[in-house]
TrEMBL record:
The lineage of its organism: Eukaryota, Metazoa, Ecdysozoa, Arthropoda, Hexapoda. It comes from the Eukaryota. GO terms for biological process: axoneme assembly; cilium movement involved in cell motility. Pfam families: Radial_spoke. CDD domains: DD_CrRSP4-like (cd22963). It comes from Menopon gallinae (poultry shaft louse). The keyword Electron transport does not apply. This is Uncharacterized protein.
Length: 622
């Protein structure tokens, strides 16, 4: 009975406590803690229950605030944890400060989206560049006023968007937005430079940035001016080189004479020292012999001076292969590059034969920085700017093609007498050109496609230069030179407008591949050609239109991994001869014999005089 009464009382107390807990509101937070929890010991007649009291107290402390979503339980845990970690002194005095710090760090927004200074987004700079391209120039308004001239040569100012359409049919090209910006940028370039023709050459991919390349032809006045400046610079450099060579010879002769005089003076000084030493030796001997009269000073003749080393042979000046002038050969076209549409166009310098020769022996990825140094072996003479120009010349020579009959040689050039072995270099568009059928253009024999860019010889030029010819008039050859060098055999490359069928294969790989863009609609198909030796070089032909483009990394195909050129043979420091060969050391007997033979003896006349003096002294004593 007693147990049942206790249970009923406890149930009634629990019911009252739960009712009191549920009715607790935010306005009752200020009431005494004990009054709102009647089940806590010491309140009324409720029986003590530790577990129940703990759960009710914890539930109250874990109640979240309506504004911040935080609870006193979590806040106290963080405060106590911070206190235990830092273990400050006089925590009773600084408890409120710790509580404030924890609350500030908990509710502070760590993602501060407000910056101290304004940082423009990345696309802002690009937008500013493109705004400059979209502004119409003066020639745009003038062109709108002029009537359209159908007779104007279409290849002088090509429509890049139209060419992009044809390349898109072949599966090659750039995004339209990018190509549109390039077309605007090309128009700005043509308005600011003395350019007669231009076309989009292609895009070379780099590690950091890419290169957009434009091929241009300067007008005749600009080409003549550059060639005149080049000739003046070459004459000045030639004069400086000849003067430096003359100065070198004179300096070597003066050095030889100076060394000979110094050697003679050294022998004279050494002879004086030897004479003094010999005289002291004679004086010592006379003193030991008890002689009263001292010997006369001895003057030894100086030894002949050691001849100076022979003058080193003056190396013959290295005759570098001259580069072709502007407007001719590999420098017929001028190239401009930029890394992004809207950037400043940078003109690439003319390429030299040495740069082309070395570029064939190395393989280096482009970085996108024109001033990047070329750390290669063999050493490349220039920076990445020159290397890019050399690769452009090689790619253009091997991949720029056109349909058979599109170009023809000038009649004026054919009428002029040609040198033996000379090749035709000037050609023009054929006004009577009849388009080649798609079937012929896609023929695997490649007989209906021709090269219209000159072939680059091993010298790095399109025309052969004879290295054995005399240089300037009035230059005399020195006597004592060896036999004249044998004349090198003249190298002649294939003629212009040579069919692609005559191209040689590389490692059993056909140099070209061709196909049609559509088999189902042959009347609308376009013929496309791809180079297998220079991956990234493409060409298309449709009716009377054709174009070439290159989009790649700028390197030639190689069936094997690239192997650098081996180091050259180690050169001899000096020629081997008897004057530098070791001989056997002399024996002690030979050394003594040589010493006695070269020993300087006192004059024999002095001895009788001394004897006579001794006899006279003896007579006086007697």
């Amino acid at each position: 009975m007693d147990n049942q009464e206790n249970k009923s009382k406890r149930a009634s107390v629990d019911g009252k406590a739960s009712t009191a807990y549920e009715t607790v509101s935010s306005t009752a937070l200020e009431e005494p803690f004990v009054q709102r929890f009647p089940s806590i010991p010491g309140e009324g007649t409720a029986l003590p229950n530790d577990e129940n009291d703990y759960c009710r107290a914890k539930a109250y402390l874990m109640k979240q605030c309506m504004e911040t979503g935080d609870s006193l339980w979590d806040h106290l845990n963080e405060v106590l944890k911070k206190i235990l970690i830092e273990q400050p002194v006089n925590i009773g005095d600084t408890f409120e400060e710790f509580s404030y710090r924890v609350r500030q760090n908990r509710f502070k927004d760590k993602a501060d989206h407000l910056r101290d200074i304004y940082v423009p987004p990345e696309h802002h700079a690009l937008s500013l560049k493109l705004m400059g391209l979209l502004r119409p120039s003066d020639d745009t308004s003038d062109a709108q006023d002029k009537p359209h001239d159908d007779e104007e040569e279409p290849r002088a100012r090509p429509d890049l968007m139209e060419l992009l359409y044809f390349f898109e049919q072949t599966g090659v090209g750039l995004p339209r937005q990018e190509m549109f910006c390039i077309a605007l940028h090309l128009k700005k370039l043509a308005a600011s430079q003395p350019i007669e023709k231009y076309r989009f050459w292609g895009k070379v991919l780099g590690l950091e940035k890419n290169y957009y390349i434009v091929e241009t032809e300067l007008n005749e006045d600009e080409t003549a001016r550059r060639n005149a400046e080049r000739e003046e610079a070459e004459e000045l450099a030639k004069t400086e080189d000849s003067g430096a060579e003359t100065r070198t010879r004179d300096e070597l002769k003066e050095q030889r004479e100076r060394e000979l005089e110094e050697a003679k003076q050294r022998e004279i000084d050494f002879a004086a020292e030897r004479s003094q030493a010999k005289y002291q030796e004679l004086v010592r001997q006379a003193q030991e012999a008890g002689q009263s009269q001292m010997p006369e000073p001895v003057e030894l003749a100086p030894w002949p001076p050691i001849p100076p080393l022979p003058l080193p042979p003056i190396p013959a000046p290295i005759r570098k292969i001259p580069s072709e002038p502007s407007g001719i050969g590999v420098n017929k076209k001028t190239y401009f590059v930029c890394t992004e549409p809207g950037d400043q166009w940078v003109e690439l310098p003319d390429v030299t034969p040495e740069q082309i020769q070395v570029s064939r022996k190395i393989r280096r990825a482009f970085t996108g920085n024109l001033d990047s140094p070329m750390n290669t072996y063999p050493a490349f003479p220039g920076t990445e700017k020159n290397y890019l120009r050399a690769q452009i010349a090689r790619i253009s020579s091997g991949t720029q093609i056109s349909p058979l009959g599109f170009y023809t040689f000038n009649e004026e050039e054919e009428a002029e007498p040609e040198e033996e072995g000379a090749l035709k270099t000037n050609y023009t568009e054929n006004p009577d050109y009849e388009p080649v059928s798609i079937k012929d253009l896609t023929d695997p024999s490649m007989s209906f496609w021709v090269h219209h860019t000159p072939y680059i010889l091993k010298q790095g030029r399109t025309t052969w230069w004879n290295p054995t010819e005399n240089e300037a008039e009035g230059e005399e050859e020195e006597e004592g030179e060896g036999a004249p060098e044998e004349e090198e055999q003249k190298e002649i490359g294939p003629e212009l407008l040579t069919p692609l069928s005559e191209d040689a294969a590389l490692d059993s790989i056909t140099p070209w591949s061709t196909r049609s863009t559509s088999v189902l609609f042959p009347e609308f198909a376009i013929a496309t050609v791809r180079s297998n030796l220079w991956p990234g070089a493409y060409a298309f032909a449709a009716a009377k239109k054709f174009e070439n483009v290159y989009i790649g990394n700028g390197h030639k195909f190689s069936a094997t991994n690239h192997s650098p050129e081996p180091f050259g043979e180690i050169q001899d420091e000096y020629p081997t001869g008897p004057e530098i060969m070791e001989i056997l050391d002399p024996t002690p007997a030979e050394e003594e014999e040589w010493r006695l033979a070269h020993e300087v003896r006192a004059p024999e006349e002095e001895l009788p005089e001394e004897e006579e003096l001794d006899d006279e002294e003896l007579d006086d004593q007697d």
